[in-house]
Amino acid sequence: MREENEKLAKMEAELKAGGGEKSVQKQHESGKLTARERLDLFFDKETFQETDLFVQHRSANFGLDKVSIPADGVVTGFGKVNGRTVCAFAQDFTSRGGTLGEMHARKICRVMDLAMKMKVPMVGFIDSGGARIQEGINALDGYSNIFYRNSCASGVIPQISAIMGPAAGGAVYSPAMTDFVFMVKKTSYMFITGPAVVKSVTSEEINNEELGGALTHSTKSGVTQFACDNDQQAIEEMKKLLSYLPSNNEEKPPYTKTKDSPDRAEAALSDILPENSNKTYNMKDVIKAIVDNGEFLEPSRQYAQNMITAFARMNGQAIGIIANQPSYLAGCLDINASDKATRFIRFCDAFNIPLLTIADVPGFLPGSHQEWGGIIRHGAKLLWCYAEATVPKITLITRKAYGGAYIAMCSQGLGADYTLAWPQAEIAVMGAEAASAIIHRGEIDKAEDKEAKEQEKIKEYRELLYNPYVAAKMGYINAVIQPTETRAKVIAALEALKDKKESRPAKKHGNIPM
Fold first, then answer.
1. Smaller CB count within 10 Å for the chain: N or C?
2. Which of 120-129, 197-206, 390-399 is predicted least confidently?
C-alpha cells in the first residue's frame, strides 16, 4: 500500500511540475506567473481541488504519441474565493505552450459543466499558443464545445476571463463571450490574425502590443474591461469584482456590512455643479460622495469615458451605476458609450443587481461619423436594455437631460421605478439656445436688436421650462431633492424596491437591434 501511495505522490509531482524548471524559469523571466501560481494566488489558501489531473491527449499524429503533455496543458478545478465557491481553469504555457487539443478542451468543458451544476462563477486564465495543430479538427471542435457552453452559461453564472499571455485566432472568442475580460499590460494580447498575417495581407507593420495588447483593447476596441499592470494585480481585481456578484442568477448579490451611515449628508454636493451649466465637473466625485465609503469598481474605465459604469455598495447592498461624465465629450451619448452601458445594464439585470442611473446628458453626439457608424442602432440598444431590465431602476438627474438622451438614460416612461432630480436639473427637448431659435425665429428676425431679443427669449425659455418642477408637476419626476440628501434618498428607494417583481410577455427572446 505504501508503494502505491508513493507512486501516486510521484506521479502527481511530475504532472504538477508542468513543463519543468527551465520552462517555469522562462515563464517568470517573461513577467508571468505559472498556471498553478495563478490559481494559488486566486483561491483561498488550501481550498483548491484539482480535477482531471491525469488526463492525457490521445493523438498519434506527427509523433505526438511520443510526447507527454502534463495535465494536457491546462489545470482545472474548484475552490473558495473569499469563502465562496468558484470553478476555474488555467492554461499552462510551460506545458507545450498551453495549446488546446481534444482532451485539453474536454477538461475545460467538464469544469464549465461542473460550474453550471454547482451554480457558481466560472473563471478562465488564458495563456495559450492556440489550437494544437497536430490534432486538426479535434482542436477546432474543442473550441466550438467551449463556445457553446459560454453561451449556455451566459446569464446563469458569472463568467470571467483573464488573458495572461497570448490569445490568438479562435482562442479569443471564448473570452469575448464571457462577462468580463482582464488583460495584463505588456505580457498579454488578443487578436484574430497576428502581425505577420496583417503585414502579408495589408503591408501594415505593427507589433503584438499595438495590435492587440491590454491598452489597445481597453481604450480602442473595448474588448477588455480591466487592463492591469501584472498578474498579481489582475487577480486581486478579479477577486474584488467577484465580491459584488452573486454566484448565479437565482441569488441576490452578497450583502456587506458597512459603518457608513445611510443618512449621511454630503455637504460638498451642494456646490459641485458649476454656476455656468456649460462648464464641466467630474461625475465620479458625485458617485464617491454617495456610495459606501466612497468606494466603487469601474469596468471599462478607459473606454468610452463619456459614460461611467461601476459597481458600488449603498448601505451594504451591491448596485450597478450608469452615469454620464460631463468632463468628457460633455457626457454626450455616442456609439461606444451606448454599447458600454448596454452590456453593463444587461449583466446587472441578469444577476439581480439594482441599477442607479445618474443623468447629465446634453444629447447624442452629432456628426456624420456617428450617423454612418449606426448611432441610431446603437442608441436603440440602450433604450432596449433599460426597457428590458426588471431589476430595481432608480434615476437621478443632476443637471442636463435633453431630448432623446433624457429618455435613453432611463426616464420614467422607459421603466424607471423611482426618479429623482436636483433643483438645478434642466429637463427639456433641447438646449435653450436651439429651442428659442426655433420657436421664436420669426420674432427674432424682425427685431431691431436681434441679439437682445434672442437673449430675452432664451431667458424666457429657461424660466418657463428649464427646471425640474414642470416634470415633477406632470409626475415624470417623483421627487426634487437637495443634493446633500442624495445618498439617503437613493438608499431609501433601494430598500423599498428590494423585493420588486416584474415580468415581461412570454417569448423565446426579443430581437435586440444589434
1. N
2. 197-206
Phi then psi dihedrals of residue 408, to 5 deg: -65, -20
**404 assigned to active site:** yes
Q: Does pLDDT of 351 surpass 80?
A: yes
User: Which class does domain 2-242 fall in?
Assistant: alpha beta
Which SS3 state, helix, strand or coil, does residue 123 take?
strand
Choice among 359, 405, 432, 488 that is catalytic: 405
Of the residues 170, 320, 331, 379, only one is catalytic, namely 170
DSSP letters, 474-508, are: TTS-SEE--GGGHHHHHHHHHHHTTT--------S
- Per the CB < 8 A criterion, the answer to whether 217 and 227 are in contact is yes
Instruction: Confirm whether 129 is a catalytic residue.
Output: no
371 Cβ contact list (under 8 Å, min separation 6): none
**Of 228, 25, 234, which Cα lies nearest the Cα of 123?**
234
493-504, pLDDT tens digit by residue?
A: 999 999 999 999
Residue type, 216: T
Domain ranges of the chain: 2-242, 267-425+467-496, 431-465
Q: Of the ranges 347-356, 378-387, 467-476, 489-498, which one carries the lowest mean pLDDT score?
A: 467-476
Express each pLDDT in 430-480 by its tens digit. Answer: 666 777 677 777 777 777 776 777 777 777 777 677 789 988 999 999 999
Higher pLDDT, 168 or 352: 352
Domains 2-242 and 267-425+467-496 share a fold: yes
CB 323 within 8 A of CB 311: no
The catalytically annotated residue of 316, 374, 403, 404 is 404
The Cα 504–Cα 495 span in angstroms is 23
Query: What phi, psi does 49 have (nearest 5°)?
Result: -115, 110
Rg of the chain in Å (alpha carbons): 26
In this prediction, residue 271 carries a pLDDT of: 93
Could you give the CA distance from residue 106 to residue 237 in angstroms, rounded to a whole number? 28
Q: Tell me which of 31, 136, 155, 169 is the catalytic residue.
A: 169
Q: Give the pLDDT confidence of 204-254 residue by residue, as tens digits.
A: 999 999 999 999 999 999 999 999 999 999 999 999 999 999 999 999 999
> Domain 267-425+467-496 is classified in which CATH homologous superfamily?
2-enoyl-CoA Hydratase; Chain A, domain 1 (3.90.226.10)
* 342 exposure class (CB count in 10 Å sphere: 0-12, 13-18, 19+): buried
CA distance 297 to 299: 7
User: Rounded CA gap, 285 and 356, in Å?
Assistant: 15
